[in-house]
């Protein structure tokens, strides 16, 4: 690795602390869908909204992308975002601890969903800001490596917290009333730390009305997609992968609960066992991303999720399992864990910083906004489609559809790389 420059060293330290705190939060949120189904007795379609909210909010970038570029005081924006979007989680502390409260009314279901919709709105500001902050403070050579080190630390914390949280939920179904408010408080702290990363002053941009800003945002996004063919192909592949991922991710949570009948500890194990491999692979993956085309890197990522989808589906025909310390271990899911580990190590890089490799540092925020907007667009219909396919046709057909889209995504990226070089 090349020597640190002062801003690079400071940025790495601050972002790693941010990533560690976010690891605690993500470790808690990793069981959110299962908490909604088992502790709050929510429906499958309501649960799909929980995941859908985390992605569909990015459609808002179409409207605020240009406005975000004009914000001079990014530190203040991040801190206001922290307070507004994280505070509602603290209110979950007052949720009741009796099952009848959730079985006789849907009020708490919608309060829960509403709190997380507000929470996920913060990503409209946070994600493009992270991409830009790191791109302007890290050298191109160190970008992938340093990000992967922080991501590895994040996953270590996430893995431990998810496992401990799963044990807590097995003892008390309502432990979420403690852990989710704590996550809200930590979210404010983490964004405060993120806001301390140096943000270069931009030249003043003339102010314009809302609709003029929307028009400029749409024009810039269209120009990026139209003129950067490599990035366009990359996003077409991502769109195909994303549809596959979104129709399967909600179904997996339902299948863990209804099909495999797992307890919280078992879900925590499957959600985190793959992170052990991911932690080991992340620095390697970060180095690889800095040396090969992101489209080739994407093909590796999509191949790994294709494999883990297949292995999970095989439990229909190979349901053999053993119980160890309260954890229900399916033999075929050992291969699922291995494939998922590769996916987790590569996707965290590809999704968060992959777009930055197609542009100069000053454009990183704009490119990530395009990437996130397209993510939000497919989230409008994909998660609910997954639940529909599962309830109508079953697990095998649903996973077959997901696998077909992954094969197409791999093909698009490989064709683009070899045909457009």
Question: Overview of this structure, please?
Answer:
The chain has a single domain, classed as MFS general substrate transporter like domains (Growth Hormone, Chain: A), CATH 1.20.1250. Strand 1 and strand 2 form a beta hairpin. The longest helix has 32 residues. The chain has 421 residues and is mainly α. The protein is built from 18 helices and two strands. The two termini are 28 Å apart.
Biggest sheet overview? 2 strands, antiparallel
CATH topology: Growth Hormone, Chain: A
CATH architecture: Up-down Bundle
Output mean pLDDT.
Answer: 86
The ordered string of helix (H) and strand (E) elements is HHHHHHHHHHHHHHEEHHHH
How are the strands of the largest sheet arranged? 1-2
Oligomerization: single chain
Which terms summarize this structure?
single chain, 421 residues, mainly alpha, Growth Hormone, Chain: A, two-stranded antiparallel ribbon, 18 helices, 2 strands, 77% helix, globular
């Amino acid at each position: 690795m090349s020597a640190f420059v002062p801003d690079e060293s400071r940025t790495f330290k601050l972002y790693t602390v941010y990533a560690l705190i976010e690891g605690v939060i993500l470790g808690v949120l990793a069981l959110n869908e299962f908490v909604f189904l088992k502790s709050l007795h929510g429906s499958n379609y309501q649960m799909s909204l929980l995941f859908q909210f985390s992605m569909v909010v990015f459609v808002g970038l179409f409207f605020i992308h240009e406005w975000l570029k004009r914000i001079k005081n990014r530190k203040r924006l991040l801190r206001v975002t922290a307070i507004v979007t994280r505070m509602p989680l603290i209110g979950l502390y007052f949720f009741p601890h009796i099952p009848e409260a959730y079985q006789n009314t849907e009020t708490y279901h919608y309060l829960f969903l509403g709190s997380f919709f507000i929470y996920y709105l913060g990503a409209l500001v946070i994600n493009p800001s992270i991409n830009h902050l790191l791109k302007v403070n890290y050298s191109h050579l160190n970008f992938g490596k340093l990000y992967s080190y922080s991501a590895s630390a994040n996953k270590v914390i996430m893995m431990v917290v998810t496992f401990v949280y799963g044990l807590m939920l097995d003892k008390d179904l309502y432990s979420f009333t403690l852990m989710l408010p704590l996550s809200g408080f930590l979210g404010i702290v983490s964004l405060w730390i993120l806001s301390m990363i140096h943000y270069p002053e931009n030249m003043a941009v003339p102010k314009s009305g809302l609709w003029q800003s929307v028009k400029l945002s749409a024009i810039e996004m269209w120009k990026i997609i139209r003129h950067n063919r490599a990035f366009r192909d990359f996003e077409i592949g991502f769109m195909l992968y994303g549809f596959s991922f979104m129709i399967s991710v909600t179904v997996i949570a339902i299948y863990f609960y209804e099909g495999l009948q797992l307890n919280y500890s078992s879900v925590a194990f499957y959600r985190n066992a793959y992170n052990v491999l991911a932690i080991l692979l992340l620095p390697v993956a970060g180095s690889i991303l800095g040396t090969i085309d992101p489209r080739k890197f994407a093909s590796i990522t999509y191949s790994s999720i294709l494999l883990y989808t297949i292995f999970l589906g095989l439990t229909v025909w190979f349901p053999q399992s053993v119980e160890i310390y309260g954890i229900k271990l399916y033999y075929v899911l050992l291969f699922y864990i291995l494939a998922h580990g590769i996916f987790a190590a590569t996707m965290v890089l590809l999704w968060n910083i992959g777009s930055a490799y197609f542009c100069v540092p000053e454009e990183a925020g704009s490119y990530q906004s395009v990437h996130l907007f397209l993510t939000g667009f497919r989230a409008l219909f994909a998660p609910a489609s997954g639940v529909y396919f599962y309830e109508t046709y079953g697990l095998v057909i649903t996973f077959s559809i997901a696998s077909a889209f992954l094969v197409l995504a791999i093909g698009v990226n490989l064709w683009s790389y070899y045909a457009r070089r």
